[in-house]
Amino acid sequence: MSTLENIEKLIKDFCETRNLSVTTSDEMDKKVLNDALSVYEKTKTEKKAEHQPIVWRMIMNKSISKIAAVAIIIMAVIIGLNGIGNPDMANAAWADVIKQINNVDYAHVYWLKSRGTDLKRHFEAWYDRPNMVIRGNKGEMTFDDGQTEQGFNENGKRITKGPSKFVQGQTFIEIFTAGLLSDKNEQFNQKIPVNVGDDFLIYEFAPPCDESEWGDDSEWIKKIVITVGYNSLLPIQMKIYEKESDDYDLVMFDYEADRKPASFFESLLVDAPNGQGKIVLDGEEAVINIEGALGLKQAIVRLHGKYDGPVAQLPLNYRRMLPVSFRKTYERKGGPIFKLDITFVTEEGYRSGKNDIIVLWLNETQKCGVGSRAGSLENWPDGKYRNIKFSPLLKSTDKQDTYIIEIMCWLKPKPD
């Protein structure tokens, strides 16, 4: 088969796959082919591909044949002649936006809360694949290195630890919407813009008919409106509106900010736990001595539940205490999960209330809290404020049903 026949076959296959009907004269075919070959020969002499149009960068940077290169040129000409080079952005599906988001390597994110007449910063985030750092308005920090996510309070104490959300395959837009705008949601993927401007597209999402898909957030979210760049198809801003209110959260995305150095994404050092000891599943309470947490003396811990079955068969006592979002997380991650009870004893000998709604995965931790035994933060026997914050971590041992419990804890003083 000759060069020209090869090119003609490539063009024919290209047009058939795109349902294009192209009618040209012999003179036009000859002129387009000659022009294309002439331009191709000229580009071979160029030294820097970055100074050439995007089609030529593709040709020079890819290992393709001269015939295929010429075919690409002619295909571009055909598309231009048929007016297909500018797709109808009014029909750009949200799935097209997701594809662009998946290609993002760096983004600076600002999260603001509009409440009444006030607009306040909630947190700021930096995403540099695979790392992400989030800094809250009180100084709390979250570090995610693509494998593990760790959260620290404003005093630098670790309060959460778990697997990276990126390990679960979430995009950064999913993370900033708590998984609401999942690329696995076919209903949302098919969404097209509700408004198309010269420089932007606007997409609008409301809770689906089955609001359980949005978990607990469906109880307060009215809708999410996202403005996307016309050419980039990347989110520029996002508004999350509350139900029965004019309040909303405003999220801004910046893809051109200066990149932070690698050291910026290194996690804070983790302090030694304030208490540590062995605990037996469905055994007796373990008394853990507390050190380095001013005002606290002991923690009394009981491990009395383990579940590793399907989410549909979660025991009733789990379902009652776990929000929909937790059950969705369990469905994604699987088990086992464990139930803990913790009570604290102060240095004066006062007992706190019992926190009996703690559910953990192994080697993960979350922030928890408990007040006085009477059920109030301030109603302690001495009348002093006692808001106990703590973060338990459960580890396995080489002995069945025996585990190591580590506890980070501190008293949060009453603000002035």
Q: Notable features of this structure?
A:
34% strand, outer membrane lipoprotein receptor (LolB), chain A, elongated, alpha+beta, 416 residues, 9 helices, 3 domains, 19 strands
Structural class: alpha+beta
Strand content: 25-35%
Shape type: elongated
For the terminal residues, how far apart are their CA atoms? 86 Å
Assembly level: single chain
Number of helices: 9
Count of the domains:
3
Reported for the largest beta sheet, the result is: 11 strands, antiparallel
Rg, please? 29 Å
Helix fraction bin: 10-25%
Biggest sheet, spatial arrangement of strands? 6-5-4-3-2-1-11-10-9-8-7
Average pLDDT reading = 79
**CATH class identity of the largest domain:** Mainly Beta
Looking at the structure, the CATH topology of the largest domain is outer membrane lipoprotein receptor (LolB), chain A
Q: Give the name of the CATH architecture of the largest domain.
A: Clam
Any idea what the CATH superfamily of the largest domain is called?
A: Lipoprotein localisation LolA/LolB/LppX
User: Care to count the β-strands?
Assistant: 19
Could you please describe the fold and organization of this structure?
With 416 residues, the chain is α+β, with helices and mostly antiparallel strands. The chain has three domains: 3-81, no CATH class; 94-265, Lipoprotein localisation LolA/LolB/LppX (outer membrane lipoprotein receptor (LolB), chain A, Clam), CATH 2.50.20; 275-412, no CATH class. The protein is 21% helix and 34% strand. It contains nine helices and 19 strands. The strands form three sheets. The protein has an eleven-stranded antiparallel beta sheet with strand order 6-5-4-3-2-1-11-10-9-8-7. Strands 12-19-18-17 form a four-stranded antiparallel beta sheet, with no helix packed on it. The chain has a four-stranded antiparallel beta sheet with strand order 13-14-15-16, with no helix packed on it. α2 packs across α4. The chain is elongated and about 70 Å long. The protein starts with a helix and ends with a strand. The model is unreliable at 43-67 and 72-86 (pLDDT under 50).
